[in-house]
């Protein structure tokens, strides 16, 4: 399997390349970036770093070398200079950047599975599909980080190993995300969390974001994103049939249409094989509907941007 990482010299792109190379589940990793020299430097370093455990070929190159990719990860985006901005504020800058970088790559790998990690993930997945007329199975968005943080917060609150926690977050990869408290499991057993515990879990999650912003590190969560991307792509490569949280375009699932939103999906080599519908409590369903409404607002903003974008009719 060949994986191309667009934006491969950035924090998320280079970290994901390293994580994938360590797994030794894919044969080739291409780091593609406008900063080609930096991408090639990362590739040289990564390939040598994993020489004792992996046979994966890692290289940097130009757009022509992305040809015949099986999976393409979009990590390119404008630098997040203002930590106070929500992810949705980056749509205006990232939409034209992503579409511009995608155009030649799509033509060279028309059957590839696209994984979008650029913010804001959910509207970008929908708008990318529209711009390039891609089937919904072929484009997903990375939002597993939300689920990872939810599990981390539960484990911390309950003082249990994080590896024993099963839980999912649905909805927007952003402010309106929906933690599914109704389906939390510890060591495989369903647990019922009372209001006080749920409040503490929510506070842990909110506290993480506040602390991250206070640090003003000038970087995104590269290691968390790389771990998520590595797990998902390795799962696709090994055909293990596992279920992952991802932003996907819905066509009636969860009662929603014309929106891309975080849901559990089963992935295969060609992308989405099945969207899993979890039973939701009334408040969870209402929260998911509100999250979808928020994403649809961003999609409408993106559609207006597309209409005003020079050459958008030629994408």
Map the helices and strands.
Layout (H helix, E strand, L loop, with lengths): L1 E5 L4 H13 L4 E5 L3 H14 L7 E5 L9 E4 L16 H18 L4 E4 L4 H12 L6 E3 L2 H15 L6 E2 L2 E2 L7 E2 L5 E2 L2 E2 L4 H21 L6 H17 L4 E9 L5 E12 L2 E5 L6 H27 L7
Q: Could you give the count of β-strands? A: 14
Oligomer description: single chain
Q: How would you name the CATH homologous superfamily of the largest domain?
A: Lactate dehydrogenase/glycoside hydrolase, family 4, C-terminal
CATH level-two architecture of the largest domain:
Alpha-Beta Complex
Summarize the biggest pleated sheet. Answer: 6 strands, parallel
Q: Predict the CATH topology of the largest domain.
A: L-2-Hydroxyisocaproate Dehydrogenase, Chain A, domain 2
Main structural class: alpha/beta
Q: Beta-strand level of the residues, as a percent range? A: 15-25%
Q: Give the C-level CATH assignment of the largest domain.
A: Alpha Beta
Number of domains: 2
Helix content percent band: 40-55%
- Please mark out the parts with pLDDT under 50 across 5 or more consecutive residues, or reply none: none
Looking at the structure, what is the overall shape?
globular
Secondary-structure element order, N to C: EHEHEEHEHEHEEEEEHHEEEH
Biggest sheet strand line-up: 3-2-1-4-5-6
Terminal Cα separation, in Å? 27 Å
- C-alpha Rg (nearest Å): 19 Å
Mean pLDDT over the full residue set: 93
Specify the number of helices.
8
């Amino acid at each position: 399997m060949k994986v191309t990482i667009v934006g491969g010299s950035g924090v998320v792109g280079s970290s994901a390349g390293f994580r994938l190379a360590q797994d030794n589940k894919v044969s080739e990793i291409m780091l593609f970036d406008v900063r080609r020299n930096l991408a090639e430097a990362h590739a040289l370093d990564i390939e040598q770093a994993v020489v004792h455990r992996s046979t994966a070929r890692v290289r940097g190159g130009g757009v022509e070398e992305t040809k015949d990719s099986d999976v393409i990860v979009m990590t390119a985006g404008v630098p997040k200079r203002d930590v106070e901005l929500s992810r949705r504020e980056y749509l205006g800058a990232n939409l034209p950047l992503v579409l511009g970088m995608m155009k030649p790559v799509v033509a060279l790998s028309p059957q590839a599975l696209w994984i979008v990690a650029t913010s804001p993930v959910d509207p970008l997945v929908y708008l990318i599909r529209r711009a390039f007329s891609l089937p919904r199975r072929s484009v997903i968005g990375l939002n597993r980080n939300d689920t990872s943080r939810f599990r981390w917060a539960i484990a911390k609150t309950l003082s249990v190993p994080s590896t024993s926690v099963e839980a999912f977050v649905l909805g927007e990869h952003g402010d309106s995300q929906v933690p599914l408290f109704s389906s939390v499991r510890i060591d495989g057993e369903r647990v019922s969390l009372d209001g006080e515990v749920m409040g503490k879990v929510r506070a842990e999650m909110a506290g993480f974001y506040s602390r991250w912003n206070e640090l003003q590190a000038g970087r995104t969560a590269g290691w968390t994103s790389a771990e998520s991307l590595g797990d998902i792509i390795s799962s696709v490569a090994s055909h293990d049939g596992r279920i992952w949280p991802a932003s996907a375009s819905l066509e009636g699932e969860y009662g929603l249409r014309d929106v891309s939103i975080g849901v559990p999906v089963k992935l295969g080599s060609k992308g989405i094989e099945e969207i899993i519908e979890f039973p939701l409590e009334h408040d969870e369903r209402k929260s998911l509907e509100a999250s979808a409404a928020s994403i649809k607002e961003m999609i409408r903003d993106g559609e207006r941007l597309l209409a005003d974008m020079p050459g958008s009719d030629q994408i």
